[in-house]
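Issue 218. Parser rejects a valid record. Input:
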Amino acid sequence: MIIIIIISNGLREIIGSTKINKMKILFNSIQCKHCKQIINSRHVHHCISCKCGKVAVDGGLDYLKRSGNMKDVIEASILIDDNGEIINHALKKKTK
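Output the parser choked on:
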């Protein structure tokens, strides 16, 4: 199970949480719309902010966590579902 937690504007307030069953994280990353930097969390509790500090990613391959204003985030994570299909959020599609 993957738990996605979204934290808004550095206030540490959880504004959304979604459970996704039978998915595996292959790549946990986002792109900041302001500075255009792509940031990747590589392991659990590996919180990385972009160079302008507006957004952050955390969780590595264990969970997806985003900090900052979600309007400033371009999702770039890649997941694999229980059917072996790769879900590439950057491309907004499933591939085999």
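Fixed in the parser; the record now loads. Residues 5-18 have pLDDT under 50 and may be disordered.
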